[in-house]
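Weekly modeling sync, notes
Attendees: S.R. (lead), two postdocs, one rotation student

Agenda item 3: backlog of single-chain predictions. S.R. asked that every request posted to the team notebook include the full sequence so nobody has to chase files. The rotation student volunteered to paste the first one in as an example of the format we agreed on. Action items at the bottom.

Example entry:
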Amino acid sequence: MAFLSQGTDLAISTKSQRNADDCAAAMGMGAINTLGRVAASICKGPPVQPSFLPSLDVPNGGVLFSLPALLATGLLCHAAKYLQMPNGYYGMESILLLLAFMALSRIKSVETLRYYPPGEWGKLLGLDRIPEVKVTREKIELLASGTQATEWGMQLCSDWMGNLDDSWASFYVDGHVRVYFGEQTQLPRHYVARQKLCLRATTDYWVNAMDGQPFFFINKPIDPGLLKVLDEDIVPRLEQEFPMPTDAEVLANPHLHRFVVIFDREGYSPDFFLAMKNRHIACLTYHKHPGNDWRPDEFDSTEVKLVSGNVVKMDLAERGILLAGKVWLREIRKRSNTGHQTSILSTEFTSDKAKIASTMFARWSQENFFKYMREHYSLDRLIDHKTSSVNETTKVVNPKHRSIASEVRKRTAIHTRLLAKFGSLNLKDEIDPEKVLVFQQAKAKLHEEINDRHTEIEKLKAERKTIATHITFSALPKEDKFKQLSDQSKYFVDTLKMVAYRSETAMVQVLREKLSRNDDARSLIRAIYNAEADLIPNEEEKTLKVYLHQLANHSSNDAVQHLCDEINKTETIFPGTNLKIIYKLGSVKNPRHQDV
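Predicted structure, as returned to the notebook:
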């Protein structure tokens, strides 16, 4: 039997009742707001405002628990300033919330929405239904057009960086190879370490915080290498947020740095270290040529606080090093239980070796971020199948130079094997004139072959010197030219995924306060997002109560109750309404330790 919600004359609908009403809608599945849709179509008025109805057992209702974190992370902040969308039934705020909820609910593509009840998802936004796939794609394209999505993402990045501790602002930089299996274009091949194959792909360079949370990324359809991207794109972008120190500040602290950049061995370059040091930017990386091991008695057991908060003991040692006769650095080594030594180079002179080691080894947080985003947020998935032209002045590797260089490597490998074979030839039997003759002939023949190979290699090397290593894209032969993947919609959606990931991480930190195992928090938050909830609006009290159905066990429910207590302190207002959201655990018919 249906019953009334307190503070309203409307009966609370069940899932079965809503399903029947959605199927009977004259304008399509779930499109029950006929007047609003006609007005938006004919009058071209403003978007319809969210309006909630009492509803039981709304699928994925738990994703509404992410709303305070999404708003605090900046989902709707600056959106009206940078993003433009023409009037229609669906407003920009509703579209942004929908896309963020999709990411958190692990709906991996817009096409997958075809298999979710549109009316039920509409209840999460205060609408009769969500837009169909075609309309959603059109809205994404509108919001991503021009440079507005890029400007919006840069503003969000500035806000996130503004919350950092300036005394130790550290940024982790690494490239993520995004494999392309389509047939729209023949992208250049990249080595994909996780698959140990050379595949057609494009490269995104990500900048993350110490705990793995993302700031921004830069797409490079033609990968110039980490060093060039650091020097020309990433460092100038970071310098905008952290200006040069004054002469007085430098005089007071000669080792003062604006921020720290951490990267792997691909960025190893004495010239780059020196250039960054002169610009008051500290660098951390692994030593590419560490040389001999240090003496064991140089290492001492040191307590190191990891990014997770755990304190461990490491055997650390430190020396100063003049790299390539150009720049002085700190070299810090960690010695493992097996005796292996990991060498770290740093131009940061204000912190102790324990802090340097902790910062360098936290680089795995970025690798974990890539893995998690690929598995749960479909980071590599294309948003559309459009392509665009590559800038004609872009420098690319000369195919002729690459071909000759490849041939040099092949023949050098053969030459090396022949030298090894020549060195292993020995006359082991008794000295016999006939056997000696056969041995001398074999060795002479092998020696001649080695000389021939050496001559061929030298000729190829001489030819390689006459060919330019890089040429402009316009100079490429027609058969080697390609189109780059369009990245406007991809950039916009990936920015939303960054907001979603940061929001999820904030909620995970709250849950970990009540969980005995930190690793369970991510699994629990996914269970919350996929749980059903009851939505009970009250216009008199101006509240929207969200009752999350009980989870699988009491420990999870206790953690969720703690989450409810914390996010209720934010007193979040649902966007476009005057309803304050109140989060509770249980159901409207059977609330947990509280009254309806």
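Discussion: group reviewed the output briefly. Residues 144 and 212 are 26 Å apart (CA to CA).
Action items: rotation student to repeat for the remaining queue; S.R. to check formatting next week.
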